[in-house]
């Protein structure tokens, strides 16, 4: 090892539901196993996490009514809060990403995206630089009365910030200028009532896949980075039949080689395996497997693409699966206790 630190994973959880906050874990390279190292509950309900480009700082949302974002140093075994949490001027931030020297949050409750500048040392500025409010609604009488931004992430070129809004059935492409000001470039409508929740890009960079929460489907889209344009191509069901009750798809990840994608669906508590053909434009459902627990809120691939991790919120665990490189089939390999688990990210 030559003194090199083992790879780390970080697990977010809901402290209001008994979670331990942010958990740091060591990752076994050969087996994918997680071993808890330490945890901090200094931030309330840290439901989503993102690492700085150099891996030295972990950014954490506080998914509360007066939402905020915080920075933690991760040099030791226990994440350490650095500075005070910064208000995002939005309600219920559910996701964050690092983009162009800023941390961006998607604020579900208030339907907005916030930009917070990152200082040279990786800590956060004292205040947000921009707040971009979404507008609109959808046909679902309970879930789509107002905008609900659910995720924001950079496109593969780093030029654009792309967000999905469950409340307005749309994908928004935004720019961020040198002053930290967010501007809407283009908004693209998806099928009314689909409820887009999360997206993932194909490793080739010319396609993206939107996982819909209100209908258990994935919408494949062509992505034009030059024009900042999303073109929907079609939907694929992620369940083999009608669900027994309401189903709540949560996350989608794509294999580094672009051959497979995996989605998680809460309620049904399954992971769906999708095959991607050479074009990537027509995902095909191959099979479903149990998620290893109850209410899989998040899926994550380890950097090697060999292991898949499910954060099972209501059963309070993170389960990992070894992926068959030929079939894409996940095979359960182990789990770690993580009460109210909400996400997993890798350093």
UniProtKB/TrEMBL annotation:
Superkingdom of origin organism: Bacteria
Gene Ontology CC annotations of this record: cytosol
Chain segments carrying region Disordered: 133-157
Alphabetical list of InterPro entries matching this protein: Cycloisomerase_2, Haem_d1_sf, Lactonase_7-beta_prop, WD40/YVTN_repeat-like_dom_sf
Start-end of Low complexity biased regions: 139-151
Residue intervals passing through the bilayer: none
GO molecular function per UniProt: 6-phosphogluconolactonase activity
Gene3D superfamilies linked to this entry: YVTN repeat-like/Quinoprotein amine dehydrogenase
PANTHER family on file: 6-PHOSPHOGLUCONOLACTONASE, 6-PHOSPHOGLUCONOLACTONASE-RELATED
Protein family (similarity comment): Belongs to the cycloisomerase 2 family.
Name of the protein this chain belongs to: Lactonase family protein
Organism: Streptomyces himalayensis subsp. himalayensis
């Amino acid at each position: 090892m030559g003194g090199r630190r083992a790879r780390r994973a970080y697990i977010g959880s809901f402290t209001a539901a008994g979670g331990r906050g942010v958990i740091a874990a060591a990752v076994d390279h050969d087996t994918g196993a997680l071993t808890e190292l330490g945890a901090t509950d200094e931030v309330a309900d840290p439901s989503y996490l993102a690492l700085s480009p150099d891996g030295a700082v972990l950014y954490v949302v506080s998914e509360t009514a007066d939402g905020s974002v915080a920075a933690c140093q991760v040099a030791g075994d226990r994440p350490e809060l650095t500075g005070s949490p910064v208000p995002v001027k939005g309600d219920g931030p559910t996701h964050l990403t690092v983009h162009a020297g800023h941390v961006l949050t998607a604020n579900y409750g208030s339907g907005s995206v916030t930009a917070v500048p990152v200082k040279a040392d990786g800590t956060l500025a004292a205040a947000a630089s921009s707040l971009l409010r979404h507008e609109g609604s959808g046909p679902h009488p309970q879930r789509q009365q107002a905008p609900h931004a659910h995720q924001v992430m950079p496109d593969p070129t780093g030029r654009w910030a792309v967000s999905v809004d469950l409340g307005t059935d749309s994908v928004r492409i935004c720019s961020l200028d040198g002053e930290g000001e967010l501007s809407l470039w283009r908004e693209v409508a998806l099928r009314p009532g689909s409820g887009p929740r999360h997206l993932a890009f194909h490793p080739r960079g010319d396609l993206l896949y939107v996982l819909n929460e209100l209908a258990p489907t994935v919408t494949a889209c062509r992505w034009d980075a030059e024009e900042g344009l999303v073109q929907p191509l079609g939907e694929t069901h992620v369940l083999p039949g009608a669900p027994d009750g309401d189903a709540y798809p949560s996350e989608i990840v794509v294999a580094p080689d672009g051959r497979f994608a995996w989605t998680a669906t809460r309620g049904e508590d399954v992971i769906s395996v999708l095959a991607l053909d050479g074009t990537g434009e027509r995902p095909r459902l191959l099979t479903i497997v149990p998620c290893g627990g109850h209410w899989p809120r998040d899926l994550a691939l380890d950097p090697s693409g060999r292991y898949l991790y499910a954060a099972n919120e209501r059963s309070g665990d993170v389960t990992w699966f070894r992926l068959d490189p030929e079939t894409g089939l996940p095979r359960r390999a182990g789990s770690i206790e993580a009460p109210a688990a909400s996400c997993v990210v890798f350093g």
